[in-house]
Design goal:
- By secondary structure, the protein is an alpha/beta fold.
- It is built from five helices and five strands; from the N terminus they run βαβααβαβαβ.
- A five-stranded parallel sheet has the order 4-3-2-1-5, sandwiched between helices.
């Protein structure tokens, strides 16, 4: 029976260095588990949702798109978007909006996803 690598990378601060590190963590993980089964999620809530604002993503857009093409999910908290006056349309394409990031985080961990905080 093959292992399925399940992990959630949690970002809840508007810190570009943390964001870059988180993206690098996922890229490096994918290289390390090449050919293995995986289900990886980057979850953004709190001020972290602003990192996916299309206008500010710039240098990270290409990496985000590459990860999305590799079936890595980008989940964004609707409550946080509301708090910062952002809409889903203002985010990088391909993000999945979840009603409450904290609930999604709990559900992922309950379902066996490793919690990683870059």
């Amino acid at each position: 029976m093959r292992m399925i690598y399940r992990a959630v990378f949690h970002t809840n601060s508007h810190d570009l260095s943390v964001f870059s590190r988180g993206l690098s963590n996922v890229v490096n993980l994918l290289k390390a588990i090449c050919g293995e089964h995986y289900d990886l999620v980057l979850l953004f809530n709190g001020p972290g949702v602003k990192l996916l604002y299309r206008q500010d993503c710039g240098d990270h857009t290409e990496v985000i798109q590459t990860l999305q093409q590799a079936r890595v999910s980008f989940k964004v908290c609707q409550n946080s978007l509301n708090m910062f006056g952002l809409t889903a349309e203002e985010l990088v394409a391909g993000c999945e909006i979840v009603p409450a990031g904290i609930v999604a985080l709990i559900e992922l961990q309950h379902n066996g996803y490793a919690y990683i905080k870059p």
